[in-house]
Design a protein that fits this description.
Elements: E1 4-7, H1 11-22, E2 27-30, E3 54-57, H2 63-73, H3 77-84, E4 86-87, E5 92-95, H4 97-109, E6 114-117, E7 129-131, H5 139-149, E8 154-160, E9 163-165, E10 175-176, E11 188-193, H6 195-207, H7 228-234, E12 260-266, E13 273-276, H8 285-292, E14 303-305, E15 308-314, H9 317-320, E16 333-335, H10 345-363, H11 376-386, H12 412-440
Parallel strand pairs: 1-2, 1-7, 2-6, 7-16
Antiparallel strand pairs: 3-5, 4-5, 8-15, 9-13, 9-14, 10-11, 11-12, 12-13
Length: about 450
């Protein structure tokens, strides 16, 4: 069988390379770091988590939880390692990001049929190949992609949250709890704000100096990763209904729900680093410190990593690619990950896994396959293919992607339970069919 190139050592590329190796293929995995760096990565590790250490909810009645459940059915490497490196995060699946990256790298290195090549890929590889170079694809490779597909560059701006040292958090002015008591009871450090404290913090956010670049007023932010100061500028109470919402959190010292709550999520297993939930920002570093020190429990904070902002690139999938993610005239050149217009860690890994399944099928003479739109992965792939090309924007997992149930169910939770049960059943059946077809084709 031919050697398969996988471009990009992020979540999608690492998952794809490992899945191909598990299916008996020789794989060259190309990662440009550390030869070429990016504005957002901190290390040269495979599958580095750049924006957050959280993979979001792990509950099947949540869209991200359902996608995780589907990936477990598909034998995802990412999900296995995430469980091994899990840290407390309530109902969410969060990991020690250093351990996570190390163990993903270890799993890749343990595959004798994968060769990791540390070099920048400047032209599209010959098929069979997977291009999962991510939202920070190098300029030269993205230019080559644009020439091949005949499309202008598309982009949006993404931002990441600050991380603070645990020993600089004043826990006498905070309390530990998960929202509604879900998961581990003390998964988050919650920093309450009264009305006056909230107003002072709000004023610091909307009045703080930001890092400027070209055309800021027209920046197409991804809605799920809005800088906190952009969100705050929309409405005085926008934060209290967003990342600072106090709902489901009662301060045990007062017995009351605070006016607003800043949540911190554990970053590492040792609990030495904590990230501010929903605090992605483009504020200048001095302004970040000034604003965060207005939070009483963080008045003496030690910032280990400041919030940042960077450009993310993606392809206009519905205009340019087939349902499984290839140019129409080159089915075995498959694009995957955030480069295709999915947004989120799990979504990226899922498209990488699916790309590996389809490259395996194509090499064996089978037609590419996509899960049915009753599954979260299938619904996401359908969105990518059928969205309006003139207004295409990145998409997270959500229940709106799925086919509706044949009979109306009134309660939201019951409806989502039924959607999840159906999705897992259909994913299991689809994957069993794929495996049986591959076996008949000679795996």
């Amino acid at each position: 069988m031919p050697e398969i190139a996988v471009v990009g050592g992020g979540l999608a590329g690492a998952e794809a390379a490992w899945q191909l190796a598990e299916r008996g293929h020789l794989v060259s995995l190309y990662e440009m770091r550390p030869v070429v760096t990016t504005p957002a990565h901190q290390t040269d590790g495979l599958a580095e988590l750049v924006c957050s250490n959280s993979f979001k909810s792990d509950e099947p009645t949540n869209a991200h939880g359902l996608l995780k459940a589907e990936l477990r059915e598909l034998g995802s490497l990412l999900l296995r390692v995430a469980e091994e490196t899990r840290v407390p995060a309530g109902a969410a699946l969060a990991v020690d990001r250093r351990l996570f990256t190390q163990r993903i790298g270890g799993a890749i290195e343990a595959q004798p049929t994968i060769e990791v090549r540390r070099e920048e890929v400047r032209v599209l590889p010959q098929p069979p190949a997977i291009v999962a170079s991510g939202p920070l694809t190098s300029d030269r490779l993205f230019a080559a992609t644009r020439r091949r597909l005949g499309s202008d560059n598309l982009y949006f701006y993404d931002a990441i949250s600050p991380i603070v040292a645990a020993d600089s958090i004043d826990e006498t002015l905070a309390f530990r709890a998960s929202r509604y008591g879900k998961g581990q009871d003390e998964a988050y450090i919650n920093c309450p704000l009264n009305r006056d404290q909230y107003e002072a913090f709000y004023a610091a956010l909307i009045g703080g100096a930001i890092y400027e670049t070209h055309d800021w007023d027209r920046v197409p932010y991804f809605e799920g990763c809005l800088p906190i100061e952009v969100l705050a500028a929309r409405d005085r109470d926008a934060l209290r209904y967003g990342p600072l919402k106090p709902v489901g959190l009662r301060d045990p010292r007062t017995g009351k729900v605070p006016y607003a709550v800043v949540q911190l999520r554990q970053e590492d297993r040792a609990g030495r680093m904590w990230s501010l939930v929903g605090f992605q920002t483009r504020l200048r570093y001095a302004e970040q410190r000034r604003a965060l020190q207005l939070i009483p429990a963080l008045r003496n904070l030690d910032i280990l990593r400041y919030g940042q902002i960077h450009r993310n690139s993606y392809i206009n999938f519905p205009a340019l690619l087939t349902p499984h993610g290839s140019p129409p005239d080159e089915p075995a050149l498959v694009f995957a990950g955030q480069l295709t217009g999915v947004e989120g860690y799990i979504e990226s890994a899922a498209t990488g896994l699916l790309a590996a399944v389809n490259i395996d099928r194509l090499v064996r003479g089978l037609e590419p396959a996509v899960p049915p739109p009753t599954t979260m992965l299938g619904g996401l792939m359908r969105y990518l293919r059928e969205a309006d090309p003139s207004n295409f924007q990145p998409m997270n997992a959500n229940f709106g992607l799925l086919d509706p149930l044949p009979r109306q169910v009134r309660g939201k939770r019951e409806r989502r339970q039924k959607l999840a049960l159906r999705g897992l059943r259909d994913m299991r059946a689809w994957f069993e069919g794929c495996e049986q077809a591959a076996a008949r084709a000679g795996r």
